[in-house]
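[INFO] parsing input record for Transmembrane protein
[DEBUG] input buffer:
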Amino acid sequence: MAAETAESNELDGRNGGDLSLHRYNPKSQLKTKVTEVSRAAFPVVDVHTHFFYRLRMNREALEDFVAAMDCNRIALCVSLDGKLGSQFQEQKEFLWKTHRDRFVLYANVDWRCDGATDDPSTWACHRPGFAERTVEQLREAVKQGASGLKLFKRFGLGHRNPDGSLVKIDDPRWDPIWAACGELQIPIIIHTADPAAFFDPVDERNERWEELSRHPDWSFHGEEFPSREELFEARNRMIGKHPKTQFIGAHIANSPEDLALVSEWMERYPNLWLEPASRINELGRQPRAAREFLIRYQDRILFGTDGPWPKKRLKYYWRFFETNDEAFPYSEKEPPPQGLWQIDGVDLPPQVLRKLYYENATKLIPGVRERVEAFAAQHSSD
Ligand SMILES: [Zn+2]
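[DEBUG] output buffer:
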């Protein structure tokens, strides 16, 4: 039939014809053990969530997610999108009005303020006294309940100087801000660079081709971008220069593909912590190395997801950390969105899981300990 002929011309692979990678969604024939992990083994602190960017101000969605937190034993989430000033107040009001006990909030640096998006020379960060003003705003935010500072990927890969060059992560102009976070005893969570494949040419050798071909703007390949190594080095200099400030390298410091390299950083910087948000895809394809790594640095690894995510994805996190199941998905999406592979669990010992899920967060992040204790007391009979 004509319709069938048209279909088969679209590289659908039928009858052994050519197949477009976008259509490749193979069904695994493996029959392996499936452990149902309906909720985490211990209370969980999710240190990497985006309640502003993912929910905007949708109260119903918030209530739904708090119900999911209850089912999954997530005691609290750290929302990283608190911004500063009146926007911080709005976010706080949104999350704390009904669930003050379940959320803490991080502030963000307001690099642009009232400047024009497309004209970096008008940005607040290039005016004299910017760092000092930001420190004052942060001090105020901490008084209002802020528990940390989040730096986004655009810091290093997007924000620009008046001459058009990219703002450097280790530009000494920002030093007073990082030092102040140490004095205020709030950690900085920093997202630097991105997966290794995002810096490679988007061609047939790229292991994330499928995803990059759908999101060309995620590629940082080319001369207009600094290399991944340069970005890591600048971030590391910043961490080394501020030993009294605690830094959380978001997404396993964005180098889960090379755990030996992250190990070097962990040895060199005692003030560096890690969290695995949206990177169980990477850890789970090297489960033995990942297990050893997570056990070695068990005192400085926190739990994070990059959510709020659908319930199904949360379960994959529990299954990854708590079981030795093999060859299961890391996401509810088909085909898998961050690499066309499956993962194995790392089956962490209970004492390591406890540190990862909540104990380390209670030591590092203001406002967490009392919330975890209240949650544990309330749910002790569960
Ligand atoms: Zn994130």
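[INFO] The pocket of zinc ion is lined by residues 48, 50, 277, 306 (CB under 6 Å).
[INFO] shutting down worker
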